[in-house]
Amino acid sequence: MKKILLVFSVLATGFAFSQDNIEITPENSWFKTGITIGAPVGDTADFSSFTLGADVRAQYLVNPNFGIGVASGYNHFFGKDNFDDLGLIPLAGFARYYATNKGLFFGADFGYGFLTNANDNSGGVYVNPHIGYHNVKWNFYAFYQNTFAENEFDIQVVGLGATYNIMF
Which range has the worst mean pLDDT, 23-32, 69-78, 134-143? Predict the structure, then answer.
């Protein structure tokens, strides 16, 4: 599964940047950095009380309404009831649809989530759909994050995030 995700990510990135006359400018390329906070759901709520994380992204606008990019960061799951804390480092591609130049957007991340401090479990397929509000400098969004980890162990979170756009 890891190899399939890697091949898909490389192909998608290669296709996006193989288009003729692509020029990276501050109007179409952004670095996004921010924070997330979430509530574990499902079985994840049995061992974690809440999550706090960092969100880091690089985005290229294909056109004024559609952006693609790469996403990563770190999510810390605070343990409860004698469970240890757990970490999740996502490595994903993402796509977003912006209905207008300021307002509603929809998006999703697809990739692999690497687990830290998890016994006998390195991680799994990572999916993170989100919906939010954006303007030139900020993105505010709600998300549902699911990592289909090894040994039938799913990590699920619902939460809120905010990122600041840095044009490059």
Answer: 23-32
